[in-house]
Amino acid sequence: MAPLLTLDGLSVFYGRRPIIENLSLTPITGGGVTALIGPNAAGKTTLLRALAGLVPAKGSIRLVGMASPAHPLELTGLPVSQHARHVTYMPQALPQRVALTVFEATLSALMSARSDVVLSTSEAQARALETLERLGILDLSRRGLDELSGGQRQLASLAQSLVREPTVLLLDEPTSALDIHHQMRVMQLVAELARERSIIVVIVLHDIAQAARYCQRIVVLEHGVVAADGLPEQAITPQMLARVYKVEARVEPCSQGFLQVIVDRAA
Questions:
Q1: Among 5, 43, 46, 73, which one is least packed by beta carbons within 10 Å?
Q2: Would you indicate the residue range of the signal peptide (predicted)?
């Protein structure tokens, strides 16, 4: 059985200002990728950070794991150390001036992820190197994080998230600093890992066509509430784009069947 993540009545406030208000979602199922899309200030990153346990939230976030489907785990209010055993979060803004190599950072992320799984040094090193190789950045393993370009650092941060092998993987715009080749490589890899490991992947994206191509479910946010939710062809429509993004646009399949969004004008 694949894991499930359910949100029920979730609210997040910054001071007295509501950012996410009474948000509920039907279960997000492991094995696929769910995209959070929406205009600026829609609450996408705030929702992701709430799922990661990094901001106080009211309501319920329940994780039904593969090991104990009859006993859901309530993530809201869980201590950070316990939360991190199940959920890994990759932020959009990455730490600066970290005095570690790419390999050291990846290995450190793996060793700190789980206290209930014991790996030998050779096993941990092999898993870290395998992750770097799969991302195509094995050649960067001995480079310092502070020596990398923005795109390279984004890939190194993704390696630190993937090597942990979490039940829930949360990614905040992981392709924003990447060229087209690496964008496709990352999205293909994330989709492959979701299927292979039956993990739950929730990803914030601004590229609607990219979300439609690689994600099985699209959740559209507007001012902290759900404006649309479903398969790409259900959620991404001219009506939704006009209402949420304030643009007149066409949604058409390309010659290979992928949805394309053609924006004609601002509404």
A1: 73
A2: none
Cα–chain center distance at 32: 11
Which helix (H) or strand (E) is 45 found in, with range? helix 44-51
Cβ atoms of 132 and 106 within 8 Å: the answer is yes
pLDDT digits (tens, 9 = 90+) for 51-88: 999 999 999 999 997 655 667 899 998 888 888 889 99
- HEC-encoded secondary structure of 197-211: HCCEEEEECCCHHHH
In one-letter notation, the amino acid at residue 81 is S
- From the list 136, 134, 132, 88, the residue with the least C-alpha distance to 112 is 88
Contacts of 27 by beta carbon, 8 Å cutoff, 6+ apart: 4, 5, 6, 64
Q: Is 75 helix (H, G, I), strand (E, B) or coil?
A: coil
Looking at the fold, whether 65 and 184 belong to one and the same domain comes out as yes
Tell me the C-alpha distance between 168 and 80, whole Å: 14
Q: Give CA angle at 227 (91, 46), nearest 5°.
A: 25
Q: What is the CATH number of the domain that holds 72?
A: 3.40.50.300
Collapse the DSSP code of 27 into the 3-class scheme (helix H, G, I; strand E, B; otherwise coil) and give the result: strand
Judge if 261 and 201 occupy the same domain: yes
